[in-house]
Every structure is written in C-alpha cells, then in structure tokens.
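Journal club prep — side note

Before the paper discussion, L.F. wants everyone to see what a predicted structure for a comparable chain looks like in token form. Sequence:
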Amino acid sequence: MEDAVRTDVDVAAAPLEVPSVAMPGRELAEALHHAQYPALVRFLLLHGASWTEAQDAAQDAFTQMCTPGLSITYPKAWLRKVAWRSWVRQQVKLEDTCAQPPEPSVALRWSTPDQAAEVGEEERRVIALLLKLPAKQRAAMAWHLDGFTSEESARAMGTTQDAVRQNLSRARASLKQGLGLEGGHSGTGQREED
C-alpha cells in the first residue's frame, strides 16, 4: 500500500499494454480470465463497488468480450472500462441516466471472513480513504494502482493526461493527509522550540 501514497508521478513508466494486433474477444477472454478476473474485481472495489457488484460487473465484462466479431487491441484497459460501465449501470436508475457516477458508501463490505482477513488494518484505512475521494480522483488512483500509465488511463477514461496527473496528485495529497503522513514541514502549525 506504500505506492498508494507516493507523491511523485512516474511519467516515464513503461506502459502496461502496448498496442498489438487486435485479437478476437473470445480468445482474449479465455486467455485473460484467470489472471485478470481478480485484478478486475479489485479495480471495481477501489471504485466503491461491493464484493458482489464487483464480481457481477467483472463477469459481465468477460461475457461482453466474447461477443462474436469483436476484436480488441487493449484488452486489459477494455475490460476495466466495460466492467466499470457495467457497475455504474447497476447503480443508476433509469430516471437518473444523466447522473454522475455513484458515490460509494464508506463502509467496507466483505462477504466472507477470508476476504476480510486478507486485508490488514492499514489497507482498510487506505481503502476507506480511497472511497471518500471524489469520483475522478478515485478513478485516477484505481487505474494507477492497477499499473496503468497516465497516458493509458487518460485514453481509457476519455480525458487528458494532465487531468489524470492532476487528479492523481490530489488523490495522493488527500491520502497522505488522511493517513497523517504530512509532517515535518516548517510552517505547518507546529511550534519550534529554541
């Protein structure tokens, strides 16, 4: 979880996915399901989905990937984008179709004791703070924590790299403040003794 609160932005990071020859979706789904399903669920949990919502949306993304005639160049980003949209559709009622993405409740919802035991106290604090972030900052952080560069995140989120970097920087600052890691700077209200 230390990476979640770093303040530097690694602009020159190697891309998680390089464009390749588009492959049929069904072949990709079969090849990626074992490795990407847990990461996809985690990605959605960081957005604020419950465990069951995340699993449903992740499975829906893999199901959509199997659509006949579909070919995908950036499968990992495609899966996250489709799963996120599926989760949002679960949250938004028909009369609210123009609404902003749903804000998650801050309570951590784990379905089984095994899932709860896997997450330590510090990780719970970080996740709770992540869920309190505004939607754009939470999205930028979720893409970053999944290993995507700011360029890949911007392309998938339909925004600019500068916007992603700015939201990531604000998210990191909020996390640092929430975790009490902003100390040691002069002028922060601490008295210096002579």
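L.F.'s comment for the group: Confidence is low (pLDDT under 50) at residues 1-14, 184-194. Keep this in mind when we get to the figures.
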